[in-house]
Design a protein that fits this description.
CATH superfamily of the largest domain: Crotonobetainyl-coa:carnitine coa-transferase, domain 1
Helix content: 25-40%
Distance between the termini: 21 Å
CATH class of the largest domain: Alpha Beta
CATH architecture of the largest domain: 3-Layer(aba) Sandwich
Oligomer: single chain
CATH topology of the largest domain: Rossmann fold
Largest sheet: 6 strands, parallel
Shape: elongated
Strand order of the largest sheet: 3-2-1-4-5-6
């Protein structure tokens, strides 16, 4: 039976997802949160690794649940000729195809862009690869830490004199996925104006390199190779994170003498205020290590949230450095609907990270959690492709639908 309409600016747009892990599914999630109908092609014989992470049932894996809300799941074995034919029938009924599988796999399966255009001339294909689809490195695959390292970002993350650390989050995947979703929307706009589809060749490494900013060309201007420098700011001090009670930290940034005096007064730090080594912004930057050490001694043992509130009321930019646990219980995020409760077919209601935008008047509903494997087989095969029940039963029996 038809699925309920969810609204949103992309209502009526159908996306076919031939994706795995994080970057491709993240792009699909963004489009789904904008109201598109996103159908993920899956199979037991070629399962998305994210369904296996966590050592739990494939329909309850936390990584998969966190990234696939409002996605539909259809099973098909793409390694069979009949399975590929079914996928091509889905392409004919879709507006966008997103893939992030191994380089060359789509072409070997006769699902390259020119193949897709023969099925639907105005199709939009968004292909996410580590190095893109062309060039001498286009054959290589990689995961988010590879994107971050190769782009130059990892070398910039860490404190002075330390080994570059990178970050223990998949920001390479989510950033590439967000860029892919943006490109898909741009391609939809192009098709609306011209009637033409497009092939979007997205390089995850290039996407991450675009985030390096001024550091990318700093050497050509200054003659110095940029290195990781922690929270250093060339014009502001103090500017960093300082320890508080327990394992909490507070982030403080002071831009001028007014904020500096307010900081010292709010913390009762008369000695800091009177120290000639910290008398001007330039001196505070030059002596930032000594300043950071003294300020850390003053913040240690204090309640991070309470201290931040006191400093902000005094006119000093300061906030508690939030942990994941802090964020999950943050009243502001819940009130803003930054978190949503969604229904899951096996696990019941659970919180997810919702869309970061608010749209008036047409905000898509986000109520459904990640799908069970093949949860929407009937909808896709019976409603969209129009297969009779006996045909569907036969495909399942012969594991074309697996």
């Amino acid at each position: 039976m038809p699925l309920p309409q969810r609204g949103g600016p992309l209502a009526g747009v159908r996306v076919l997802e031939i994706t795995k892990v994080w970057a491709g599914p993240y792009a699909g999630k963004i489009l789904a949160h904008l109201g598109a109908e996103v159908i993920k092609v899956e199979s037991r014989s070629n399962i998305d690794e994210m369904r296996a992470y966590g050592g739990v049932d494939m329909n309850a894996a936390p990584y998969f649940l966190s990234i696939n809300q409002e996605i539909l799941s259809v099973q098909v074995n793409m390694k069979t000729e009949e399975g590929l034919d079914l996928v091509k029938q889905m392409v004919a009924q879709s507006d966008i195809v997103i893939d992030n599988i191994r380089p060359g796999a789509m072409e070997r399966s006769t699902l390259g862009y020119e193949d897709l255009r023969k099925i639907r001339p105005d199709i939009i294909q968004v292909s996410i690869k580590m190095w893109g689809n062309e060039g001498p490195l286009g054959y290589q695959t990689g995961y988010a830490p590879c994107f971050a390292s190769l782009s130059g970002l990892t070398a910039l993350v860490g404190h002075e004199g330390e080994t570059p650390k990178g970050m223990n989050i998949r920001y390479g995947d989510s950033t590439a996925g967000a860029a892919a979703a943006l490109a898909a929307i741009a391609a939809l706009h192009h098709r609306e104006r011209t009637g033409e589809g497009q092939f979007v060749d997205l390089s995850a490494v290039e996407t991450m390199t675009s985030l390096v900013g001024d550091s990318l060309f700093a050497y050509s201007v200054t003659g110095e190779v940029p290195e990781s420098d922690g929270n250093y700011h060339p014009d502001m001090a103090p500017h960093g994170a300082y320890p508080c009670a327990g394992t909490d930290w507070i982030s403080i940034a002071v831009a001028d003498d007014t904020e500096w005096q307010a900081l010292c007064e709010a913390m009762g730090a008369d000695a800091l205020a009177a120290d000639p080594g910290f008398a001007t912004p330039a001196l505070r930057v030059a002596n930032r290590r000594a300043l950071d050490a003294q300020l850390a001694g003053l913040t240690a043992g204090q309640d991070a949230a309470g201290l931040a509130d006191r400093l902000r009321k005094a006119g000093v930019p300061a906030f508690k450095s939030m942990s994941s646990i802090d964020l999950c219980s943050d009243e502001y995020l819940w009130n803003r609907q930054g978190f949503r409760m969604v229904d899951h077919p096996h696990n019941g209601p659970r919180p997810i990270i919702g869309p970061s935008w608010r749209m008036t008047p047409d905000m898509a509903r986000v109520e459904r959690g990640a799908p069970a494997l093949g949860e929407h087989n009937d909808y896709v095969y019976r409603e969209i492709l129009g297969l009779p029940q006996e045909r569907l039963d036969d495909l399942i029996a012969r594991k074309v639908i697996d």
